[in-house]
Amino acid sequence: MKLLIAIALVLFSAMVSAGKETDAKVDALDSRMQRIERVIDNQALLGMAKKIEALQREVQELRGENEHLTHAIERLKTRQREQYLDIDRRLQTSIGVNGATSIPANNGEFANDTVNVQITNATSSSATTSSTTSADASATISGTTVANTASNEAAQDYKNAFILLKQGKYDDSIVAFGFFLQTHPGSKYASNAQYWLAEANYVSRRYPQALMEFSKVINTYPVSSKVADARLKLGFTHYELGQYEEARIELTRVRAQFPNSTVANLAQQRLERMSREGH
To answer: Residue 55's domain spans which residues?
Structure first.
């Protein structure tokens, strides 16, 4: 009997000991799980913090880009406004007192005559012809009539192209001025037509084409009064194309060749602007 009691006590003691070990293991496991959970929580918080930081950087970058784009848009608006004001100013100098477009004289400058040229009346030619009986005189009168008619046609074509430009129909005016130069290459209005063709391309932001057309004014019509304006706009066009060194050279040349003039002042203003912009 005593032996059974002793065995029972030993078993009970073993069970108690095993229970304590199990509890200790459970406690240790629970402690480890808590530590793991804390680590996981810390990593999640760290990852979230990194994501928040990355988002903040992205927001800052987007704000910077937005400010840059806003500034660029404002600059483009300013340039566009300057272009329209510039061409409007030049167009206004070409308008007669009664709103008629002035015709350039032989030297390329605008004269007081308007483009409202009347086509030569056939009856005047007939009257002149009837007063002359010789064949040579008739031939001379006929040649004069043809020349006058051609001159009137050139004036009318120039007027039509200029009106399109004045109305802001730049694409149509480009076609019209191109047609004029092809049809009347020797006309006294050719240098002005070439200049306005270049202007129409410039205000339409066709800068490479404008560069070529302004160069034609300078090279083809070196004595034209439009050369100064063409050189100024050549510098402006280089500026719009981001060719700042070429723009600076051209604008400096304008300032030196045409001192104390409107184009010289405009060239100086653009040079100062380039300096402010770091170009």
So the answer is: 25-90
In a domain, 29, yes or no: yes
Q: 10-residue block means of pLDDT along the chain (279 residues)?
A: 70 67 76 79 78 81 72 59 56 44 38 34 36 41 52 90 93 95 94 96 95 96 95 96 96 95 95 94
CA angle 190, 265, 71 (to 5 degrees): 100
Q: What is the DSSP string of 143-181?
A: HHHHHHHHHHHHHHHHHHHHHHHHTT-HHHHHHHHHHHH
The pTM (predicted TM-score) of the whole model is: 0.55
Residues 144 and 81 grouped into a single domain: no
Query: Is the same domain home to 58 and 156?
Result: no
List the beta bridge partners of residue 153.
none
SS3 (DSSP) at 114? strand
User: Is 82 domain-assigned?
Assistant: yes
C-alpha span between 269 and 168 (Å, rounded): 26
In a domain, 236, yes or no: no
